[in-house]
Amino acid sequence: METNLKSLIRDIPDFPKKGITYKDITPLLLDPEAMKTAVDRFIENLPDVKIHKVVGIESRGFFFATLLAEKLNAGFIPVRKPGKLPHHTHSEDYDLEYGTDTLEIHEDAINKGENVLLHDDVLATGGTAAATCKLIERGGGKIVHCNFLVELEFLEGKRKLENYDVSSLIKYS
């Protein structure tokens, strides 16, 4: 029987701020069959092209991005908050559902023309993913797909990614 991924996401009300309902993916991460199912579904949704690099967004995006990179025989690139990467970086400011922040990527992480898969755990307002797309393209990468474990459709974050192929495994409307 196939794992119901949505049943393994728990809501945490008023986290990290009052009025926000946090989608906690840790119950899903505790279930090895669910993780395998998620990775298989992510791969099924990918275009039929060679992916050179998988970009994961700090920090929950790292969990599946590294698994996807290994399965796709691709490199993994972490996108992090300021001051967390030890080498020369590009940075991009962005808005998120409860404030503003900045993301960074190593300047030498992507070679010009490489096909890149962007992965994150949740697509909410789209600001984080859109900022990461700018970082990938600044480095010369071609974004072939953006995938997310969870999408909060009511926040319409997909609108900020309308120029990209986007899929999500679990949707909340």
UniProtKB/TrEMBL annotation:
Catalysed transformations (reactions): AMP + diphosphate = 5-phospho-alpha-D-ribose 1-diphosphate + adenine
Enzyme Commission no: 2.4.2.7
Pfam families reported in the protein's UniProt record: Pribosyltran
Example GO BP: AMP salvage
Top EC group: transferase
Keywords, in A-Z order: Cytoplasm, Glycosyltransferase, Purine salvage, Transferase
Matches recorded under InterPro entries: Ade_phspho_trans (IPR005764), PRTase-like (IPR029057), PRTase_dom (IPR000836), UPRTase/APRTase (IPR050054)
Localization in the cell: Cytoplasm
GO MF term set: adenine binding; adenine phosphoribosyltransferase activity; AMP binding
Phosphoribosyltransferase domain span: 31-153
Listed GO CC annotations: cytoplasm
Domain of life per record: Bacteria
Major subcellular site: cytoplasm
Pathway this chain belongs to: Purine metabolism; AMP biosynthesis via salvage pathway; AMP from adenine: step 1/1
The protein's role, per its UniProt record: Catalyzes a salvage reaction resulting in the formation of AMP, that is energically less costly than de novo synthesis.
NCBIfam families: apt, PRK02304.1-3, PRK02304.1-5
Subunit and partners: Homodimer.
Family of this protein: Belongs to the purine/pyrimidine phosphoribosyltransferase family.
Name of the featured protein: Adenine phosphoribosyltransferase
Organism (species): Christiangramia salexigens
Classification lineage: Bacteria, Pseudomonadati, Bacteroidota, Flavobacteriia, Flavobacteriales
